[in-house]
């Protein structure tokens, strides 16, 4: 799909999930096979986390979101930054913001062991994914989890 969509986009045919009015999805992105994914680096569409928390004071998810996000980031970044194993080293979110994007491009291995690329685009329904999760429960015979991407942020 990615190759055909890319070729159609090059000749000016509008393809859902490829061509958009948003700057971060205006052109198809061909990511190198060694990269797992690509999300645009623009910081135009942001969510101010302090404002978001203030706008949703009764939502229990909002209450723990920022501490949970920081702990998630700490766990993910410890291999590259060993100092993060110390819980006294703070995780600081620049301007207390996260940045929203319309699409993410992902490299994956297909069922027939071929390298493929796909686009996640939640606003047009291209948001269902399958994730390898072998350690979720040891007694299950199905080491995969199904999920729906609700939004794309960096």
Please give the structural blueprint:
Elements: H1 2-10, E1 37-38, E2 46-48, H2 49-55, H3 60-77, E3 97-101, E4 104-109, E5 115-120, E6 128-132, E7 144-148, E8 152-153
Antiparallel strand pairs: 1-4, 2-3, 3-8, 4-5, 6-7
- Number of extended strands: 8
Q: Structural class of the helix and strand makeup?
A: alpha+beta
Number of helices: 3
Q: Name the poorly predicted regions.
A: 19-26
Biggest β-sheet strands, sense, barrel: 3 strands, antiparallel
Binned, the helix content reads: 10-25%
Shape: globular
> Strand sequence of the main sheet, in spatial order?
1-4-5
Straight-line N-to-C gap = 25 Å
Averaged pLDDT, please?
81
- Estimate what percentage of residues fall within beta strands: 15-25%
Rg estimate, integer Å:
18 Å
Key words describing this protein structure:
three-stranded antiparallel beta sheet, 3 helices, 22% helix
Walk me through the structure.
The chain has 154 residues and is of the alpha+beta class. It contains three helices and eight strands. The longest helix is centred in the middle third of the chain and has 18 residues, at 60-77. Mean pLDDT is 81; it is low at 19-26.
What's the short version?
The chain has three helices and eight strands. It is an alpha+beta fold and 154 residues long.
